[in-house]
Amino acid sequence: MKEFWRLYSKNIGGVLGLAFIVLVVIMAAIASLLYPTGPFTLTGSSYVQPFHDIFPLGTDSLGRDVAAGIVWGARVSLLVGFTTTLIAVFIGVVIGCLAGYFGGVTDSVLMRFTEVFQTIPSFIFGIVLVAIMSPSLYSVVIAIAVVTWPAVARLVRGEFLALRNREFVIAAVAMGMSNTRIILTQILPNTLSPIIVISSLMVATAILFEAGLSFLGLGDPNVMSWGFMIGAGRNALRTAWWNSTFPGVAILLTVLAINLIGEGLNDALNPKLRDK
Amino acid sequence: MKVRIVNPVGRYLCRRLIQGVFIIFAIVVINFLLLQLAPGDAVEVLAGEAGVATPEYLANLRHKFGLDKPVLVQLGLYLKNIAMLDLGYSFRHNSPVLTLIVNRLGPTLILMVTAFVIALVIGTFLGVLAARWVNTWRDTVVTVFALVCYASPIFWIGLMLIIVFSIKLDWLPTSGIETVGAFNTGFDYVLDLAHHLVLPAITLALFYLAVYARMARASMLEVFQMDYVTTARMKGLREGRVVYKHVLPNALLPVLTMAGMQVSSMLGGSVIVEALFGWPGLGLLAFDSLFARDFNLLLGIFVLSSALVVVVNIIVDVLYSVLDRRIELR
User: Fold this and answer.
1) Nearest to residue A188, comparing CAs of A205, A168, A202?
2) Which of A129, B47, B261, B321 has the greatest number of beta carbons closer than 10 A?
3) Among A82-96, B116-130, B192-206, B216-230, which stretch is predicted with the lowest mean pLDDT?
4) Residues of A near B (CB-CB distance < 8 A)?
5) Which candidate from A116, A131, A234 shows the least CB-CB separation from B159?
6) Has the ipTM of the complex gone over 0.90?
7) Residue B304 to residue B286: CA distance in whole angstroms
8) Which residues of A touch B211 (CB under 8 A)?
9) pLDDT tens column, A10-25
10) pTM here?
11) Which of A88, A50, A86, A87 minimizes the C-alpha distance to A69?
């Protein structure tokens, strides 16, 4: 663990990114303390300018506090980001390790299946899925997970193919270990590094994807999401630029921080780059 | 009768095309299943618009459109129709889906090709710049710029560009493909089109610009380590010549592969950009059909864009093997 932190902290960007995400998580956690009435309450007059009054980031067309929206919206972004990634990584790992370990026909069939999903343009597929399932947090999470698992599956399959014929696996087979045990206790722990790296990047992708869906009006209408705020602020672009700007900055900084964390993890976990 | 194709590229092409057909077949089946899952069907939409909704009327319409047949029969009919390029009928627009798509294909292609060229050319140039002056201020500026463009949502960047260039500076129009009521012809039309194309193309390009810049920079740095670069320098060649004549052509290949793979992603991006700028292309058509619950049209676009991706993937693979003689087409 100490070794990991030592390597990770060599990347300043990674450390900054981690600090920022911790701040975002704290902000999301204490949202009900900061703005107990929630993001949808009409607390002021419409289109209050930012930086002037008690509303640090201004208000939107209905008088809702933009800052409250950002704080509460962090919950949605983080929730969608992490849940989607968990589901997508789970599906991807299962399919990847089955394809990589058993090879042959299983591999061919599973890879054709993965290829079909990778060929379909992901955003359009996501839109179609959410439209069919009627927009809600559940459908958004399921749609994004369905669209993003192929990348994980390919990665895990590659790793399993590489490790399948190593001595320790052959030894385990000779010892009479069951396939499940070999996969779970021998090979999978050695593939964790690239899986962790790709997971962190997938959280960023999921947040951007959810923002895109909400912007187009396909997000859950009952929650305040950053993408929704940007989309709603479009109507007032000439007069109230702050409605769309600040939620976008929030998304930008969060995704940037996650990308930096991903690069830091890559440096820390990938031995090939260690000496550069 | 056995046909033997001797040319390895030709053989590979045939194999990939056959594989492509299978993939498109699978996508069409998925398409059909999604259509079935969609709430409400064409008959309900029609009945709603006609204002008549007696059960007999609905049953009659269903029988006429063949919607009361068993699902497998409907699937068979659907596949037969697709094979004859009949993608169904859009009831909202009162026209066959294929006609609608073909009409809107032009603007989308203009947008995507322009964005692609901008992203590839400028992105690669920035990446090369960053790699050549690695770890200097030039490198830092390019890297930070790429990181920011990569992390921003496409629609947000578009809105920010509109605020700055359309609203505050009034240099560029906010939306549309031509000035309404201007009825320009000939060269004026092209100029007007280009004027409207600037913001949407740049918005779509920025994200991919960042991707290619980072890719090009990493690839160049890797090629810089190669022996033949050291040899070129030892021969006494100027650094510029080394970079542009020896390093760049070899570093470009991963960038091109990545570029090919991004077409699928760019189609999704074009939906957002077209919805944002009111650009009358396929993306906007998909967006409109979404809210009009016109699933025939939406899924027609779905199938066609997937087919496009399959074709582009094959072209990229063949191109890649032609450009890099070390790669063998299997």
Assistant:
1) A168
2) A129
3) B216-230
4) 112, 115-116, 118-129, 131-132, 134, 204, 208, 211-212, 215-218, 227, 230-231, 233-234, 237-238, 241, 244-245, 247-248, 251-253, 255-256, 259-260
5) A234
6) no
7) 12
8) none
9) 888 889 999 999 999 9
10) 0.88
11) A50
